[in-house]
Amino acid sequence: MKNIVIVGSGGFAKETKWILDRIVREGGCWHFCGYIDKETNGENILGDDSYLLNIDEKIDVLIAIGNPAIRKKLYEKYSSNSNIRFPNLIDPTVEISESVKLGCGNIICAKNVITVDISIGDFNIINLGCTVGHDVTIGDFNTINPAANISGNVNIAGMTEIGTGAKIIQGKNIGEGAVAAAGAVIIDDVLPNTMVAGVPAVVKRVY
């Protein structure tokens, strides 16, 4: 059994623990040790970041924080300790083809359908019930919220947030740091650091 901890102790961290439990029930090889959080008084919290920075044995770490910028910052902090490994966590109900290429540190929740010839980078969260079509490229540190639909040949750069129920039609590019509001229907490319919303989606804010 490999020891594993979850960074964060909020709602998504608890959902991540639920995925982990489901995997273990099906024969997975992880032993859950506890949560890492700056608030150290909660149930099953092992300590704050210093716990991981000072650990002297191999341990698997899941960063269960929805905000892409915080997730990236934590990865950069923890990567100074060579004992820390960042596995992918994929719910047993996910339908995913053998042609999908995965980086590390991804959390893919229940009932996702991820089809063929897809490239997914590092430390992405793909939440409940999303679909990802053929030949999609997803970069690093993206958060794709529940029930999003990503059509074929879409390119999502990195550090983006795709809102609940958002839809991206085929062949579109989503720039670095872009945000798609919940329910947005994206029929045009989205420029970096831009928020879009509506049906069809239009620019609401530039960061």
What's the quick description here?
This protein has helices spanning 11-25, 49-53, 68-78; strands at residues 2-7, 30-36, 45-47, 59-63, 84-85, 89-90, 95-96, 101-102, 107-108, 113-114, 119-120, 125-126, 131-132, 137-138, 143-144, 149-150, 155-156, 161-162, 167-168, 173-174, 179-180, 185-186, 194-197, 202-206.
Give the key terms:
single chain; 207 residues; alpha/beta; 6-stranded parallel β-sheet; 3 helices; 15% helix; 32% strand; globular
Please state the oligomeric state of the protein chains shown. single chain
Query: How much is the average pLDDT?
Result: 97
Q: Give me the number of helical elements.
A: 3
Order of helices and strands: EHEEHEHEEEEEEEEEEEEEEEEEEEE
**Number of beta strands:** 24
- Fraction of residues in H or I helices: 10-25%
Strand order of the largest sheet: 6-9-12-15-18-21-23-24
Question: Which class of secondary structure composition applies to the elements?
Answer: alpha/beta
Rounded to the nearest angstrom, the distance between the terminal CA atoms is 45 Å
- Shape descriptor: globular
- Spatial extent as radius of gyration: 17 Å
